Amino acid sequence: MSANTDIARLVGRLALALIFILSGFNKIMNFGAFSEGLAAGGLPLPQVLTVLAIALELGSALALAVGFQGRLAALGLVVFTILATAIGHRFWEITDPAVQPMQMIMFLKNIAIIGGLLQVWAGGVGRFALGRSTIGGSKAG
Question: What whole-number distance in Å separates Cα of residue 9 and Cα of residue 13?
Fold first, then answer.
């Protein structure tokens, strides 16, 4: 693997992790509002789900950023993003023409992020990482 590839993987990991790190900290700073939003959406145990969301999102994002168990972290963020998208961006159910297009864009943005995370999972984190995952039997981490 070339140095350019390793640099690209590092920059890609950092770019992917950034949105989740900021979002995780935002959930911490606005814990009550996020919990209330989950409750308003009909989800049970919103405070417990908020804690779980923060732990999965922020923990996986920080691990991805530094490359510690990066493939596993990417997979955790795939699961998180699928759930967040299914809960929060159901654009096909929205009838307000002022809101529906933006929710469709958010949905598609999340699909693109999932694609990037799957690239990390499939290809590993590269040389500039604290640790390497052995998911799938590969040390490509």
Answer: 6
